[in-house]
Each structure stands twice: as structure tokens, then as C-alpha cells.
Amino acid sequence: MSTGIVLPSERDASGRSFGSEERALLLEVLESGILFGPNGTKVRAFETEIAALLGTRHARAVSSGSAAVHTALAALDVGPGEEVITTPITDMGAISPILCQGAIPVFADVDPQTLNITANTVAERVSDRTRAIIVTHLFGNPCEMDPIMKLATERNIPVLEDAAQSYLAKYRERYVGTLGQIAAFSLQQTKQITCGEGGFVTTNSEALARRARVWADKGWNYDSEAADHEFLGLNYRMSELQGAVALGQVRKLTAMVENRVRVADVLRRGLADVAGVRPVPVSSHAVATYWRFPLLIDSEVVPGGPAALAGELKSLGVWSTPNYIRYPAFMCRQFRERVTFGQSDHPYSLHGDYPLEDIDDFPGCKTGLASVLVLPWTERHNDTHAAFIADRMTEAVDRLVRDAGQPTGESG
Q1: CATH code given to domain 20-252
Q2: pTM recorded for the entire structure
């Protein structure tokens, strides 16, 4: 029997929070006739307000989350043949910018429980070519930053935080995106706040902030009376239309994130007694802000594991993504066949012993992806939705156990 409950989706208005604030700001832009970011006010206002909220000295708005990662790498002046350590569990938009800088992505394994990289897994991949470390706070759950920063400081390697999924997440009372030398955020449709596409870079470094701003303006410094194209850069500017929506969104960010966290806690409690299902752990000194709600599924208790559970949940009105991504980034064709710039094999040709990675050499990644099931999550989820998901999860697990001929709620 249908309950009449339809869960919110970040794909449309059911899970997004656009209203009179964004409409008013958009109208101001249209009435001004100034849609070009450098000549307007909304992009600059967004940069000022997001920097103030996060407690960072500088923010530079750009056209996408991928552009933010690329701009941050360019600000660090990462160059051809140099290595950038990153995670294999991430969007390709966070990896392609490494290659576009002529640099080499080097993948570190992850913790099988959080699916985040760790200081130990990073240390295994550091070499004398390592130029930067990208730390991705997956699902809005902060990495263990103290040991990572200690390692990076000892080796004099800058840390770039990929905070695309982690708005207002905290590690030891500090916001994610303020812990490394520089950070990249995304404003894509599904993120905690959005303007459809967009992103920004944050840093406390004056030098990195200036280089990021100029580089994303094709190497041109709009703030100088003697402007010139100082170095190679790209056009990654954000438009005033994007800036207006982003500005309206950032003014709601704190309240929207607070609701994500509060309702996530309701769901965590609701799932406490579901056999074989548990939320991805969050450190006691961290605050996760739930871009998605990730679960670890014990296949010995839940027959068929994440894939079978996702199928049952779908039939009960709950969408989910088993295993999160189809396979680790290094198994994509782009890496297996080195499809980059024509037939040049660039930048791999600069690194003669660049390996083709094997999933068996990444036990944390292999185990983590095999066990994770990811639920959509938005600021519009409420207590009723959390209770509905918990009930349907219980029903789905019971069905799988019953169909497998196991006693309900037992692992035998």
C-alpha cells in the first residue's frame, strides 16, 4: 500500500531551496544589464560573504567545481611531469585538471570504513616528484586532517582540499576548506548550495589568492590599471547570473546544513537496529554535513549486499546508489588507455614508469566500494522522510533475508 510519501530530490524543486531571495537578486542583475562578473556586484558579494562565513581570507568564484580544482592547482603552479596525490574515489572533474596541468595523478588507497584517504595511504605514494596532495572529504565527512597536514608539512608539500561535498563540515572546530593551503568547492546542482554550475577557491594566502584570481581571468588582472596577460590562464569566470543565485544560496547555507545534519541524526537512530546496515562512521572530533547519506552494508548479513538492497529499496520508493561509483578512477578508459592529448601520450610520456594501477593493490578502496550504499540527501529531508527511509530499509533487509531462507534479523 502506498504511503503517499515522495522523497525530496536534488534534481528539482522538491529538494532544492530557491525562492524570493534568488529571484530578487536575479532581477537586479537583469535590470542592471551587467551580466559580466568582473563588472558587476553579485559575484564579488558572493566571494565576500562565503569567505566571511568560512572564516577564510580569500574566495575566488569560478565557473564550475572542476574549474575550482584546476584554478587551485594553477595557483600552486603545479607543472608538467610533477605528481599530485589524490583519491581513486572521486568525480573525474577533480582528476582531469591534474592532467590538464601536465601533471600526473597518483592514487592513494582509502580507509575502507570512511572511503577517505589517510596519512598512511598518502605516505605510501609520496615521491620526490610529489608537488601537491588533494584531500577529498567524501560525502561531507572530513578526512583525518591532523596527520595528513603533519605529513605534508614535514615533506613541504601543499595540501589542496576538495571540499565540493563538504560545506560547513568541521574538523576540530574548523571548517573544511580552511585547513590546507588552498581549497576547491563546487556549486553544481546536487551540492549543499548551488547555482546550477559554479565553484570557488578559498585560501588564506595572499599570493595564492592573487594567482588564482588572475589565472582564472586568462592571466589578466582586472584590478590593475596597468593590466596585462601575465601568464597562461583560462577563462573560468563566473557570470553575474550565477553569482546572484549563489549569493542568495549562501545566505541560507547555515540553516540548510543544520537541517541536513539534524535529520541525518534522526535517520542514524532509525537505522540503529537494522541488521547488516550502518552509517559510515564520523570521527568524534568532526562534524559531517551529508552531501549524501552513505551506508556500509554487510553482505554476510544482507544477502546480495548493496546491489540487492538497492533493488529492494527502489521497489519500496527509496532511491539509492550501490557502490557509489562503477569503479575507481584509475580503472576508467581515460587512464587505462591514456586518452589525453591526441596521440601524444602526454603527460604520461614525462613519467616513464607511470603504472597501470590494479584494484587488488587498493584493498581499502576495493572493500569500501563493495560495501557502500549511498542515499540521496537534501536540505528538504525531514523527520517523516527519515522515518520512512528507516522503515523501508528494515522491510528491504527482511525481504532479502527471507528470500535467502535466513531467519529474519539473523546472520546465519
Answers
A1: 3.40.640.10
A2: 0.95
